[in-house]
Structures are given as structure tokens and as C-alpha cells.
Amino acid sequence: MKTVFKEGFTLMEILIVTALIGIISVAVILLLDPWAQINKAHDAKRKHDLAVLQKSFEDYYSDKGCYPQAEHLCFDVSTAVNVCAISKTVTSKLCHICGLETAPPKFSEFSPYLNKLPCDPQHPSKDYLLEVERPGCARNDASVCAESTSPPCTSDYCPQWYRVYADFSYENDKDSELFGCKGGGCGPAKLSPPYGFDYGVSSHQVGLQKSNGYVCVSDNSCNACQSPRDYNACVQDPGCPNKSLIYGTVESCCAANPSFPGC
């Protein structure tokens, strides 16, 4: 009887194939960078959400002659921050938008223009920040405005401008760079810490607030960029060798580099 021998893989061949598969897998992961793709997807949703909000706000304004109030949009309107002028009068309100939270107290008045409010894809760690005009009133709250003037705040007001900000996940987003917001350089100046957002939309009456205190990393420290200390000034500053390490504020730089001197 003739014996038939079947050829198989040697141990060495199996090890070589396994190693090749491993190398290819690592190369694919490095090339595609799945975390970067996830972050880009989050930011794409943020851009879409803010575009939807902007359209609904403008539709509301066309009908009402006012933009929607914080009470129409924010789930945390009861704890909204009042931004005050030197005269101690309230000029705007700061609060957050998220359709997954409790409905705003006056949402039913706005719902014909947008039946569900969007929410940041990384809620609750991140939320869309609304700043809306709150004209012509004063507060008795010493922690907010320090003193009282007239007239007092009422529940009825007619905002003539708004801003909505988003905190991006992908550090190298081109729109954030184009808007001059890269590195957390946009947002309300009176936040503590100030600014901290990478993208936003606003009514045509106002633009986004932008930092004039940009810093960059050089010599293992957070250093001020050349005048006028906006994002573009940092990009052009020869003292900022690494253009990917530019931040809107010292606070943002220190948060990313806590071991630096002075942080």
C-alpha cells in the first residue's frame, strides 16, 4: 500500500505569517488612526447641530423680531450665568443646550421651529454653550453684579443677538483654524477660565468672541505669542516652533502641560 504524505505549514512559517499579520494590523491602525476618526465624527455632528440651531434661530427671528431666549433653549437656565457690564447691568446670559436633558421651561414656544434640541455627542462631559443678549436689567445678586441698578430683571425680553459655542475633540480641525478658534481661543471672555471653545456660530449682529491672549509652547513653557496675540499671530511667530502646540489662553496651555513652570 502506497503511503500518501500531506504537506502542512511548519512552525516557522506560521510564526512568519502571524508576524506579518501583526505588522500589517499595526500599520493600518497607525494609518487610519481610529481615535482621530471618532473625534472627527464627533466634530462633524457638532458643526451640523450648530448649523441646525442657527437656521432655527433665524427663522424664529424672522417671525418674532427677537431671537429665542435662554428660557426657550437651556436645560440649566435656572443656574444661568449673567454677564454684566461695568454699569452692573446684565448684558447677556450663559447657559447650555442639550435635548437629552429636561426640557427648557419655555421650549413649547420654540418647538415649532425645532422639535428636538440637539445635544453634544459627548454629553455630559461637553455641552453646547449659548450666550444670548439679556438687555436692560440689573441684578441684586452680589456675586454676579456687585450692586443693583434699575430696571430689575423680568421674564420677558427680546434678544437681538446670540452666540453658540462647541468644544471640539479633534485638535487639528480646519474650520476651527479658519475661524481663529483653534486651541480653545473662542468663547465668552468672562468665563472662568475664559474662552475654551473651538467653534461657534452667531447672529450677524455680532461675531464670536476670540482670545487676544494666545500662547504657544517653547522651551517647555507657555509663552505669549507676538502681538496682537491671536491665533494667526502665533502661527507667524518664529518663537513658536511647534504650530500644533498653540493655545487660546495660558489656562488651556497649563491644563495640557501641568508640569510646565508657572502652571
Automatic annotation (TrEMBL):
Residue ranges of the TM segments: 12-32
Gene3D superfamilies, per database record: Glycoprotein, Type 4 Pilin (3.30.700.10)
InterPro entries recorded: N_methyl_site, Pilin-like
Record-linked SUPFAM superfamilies: Pili subunits (SSF54523)
Superkingdom of origin: Bacteria
Record key words, sorted: Membrane, Transmembrane, Transmembrane helix
Entry annotated with the keyword DNA repair: no
Protein's recorded name: Type II secretion system protein GspG C-terminal domain-containing protein
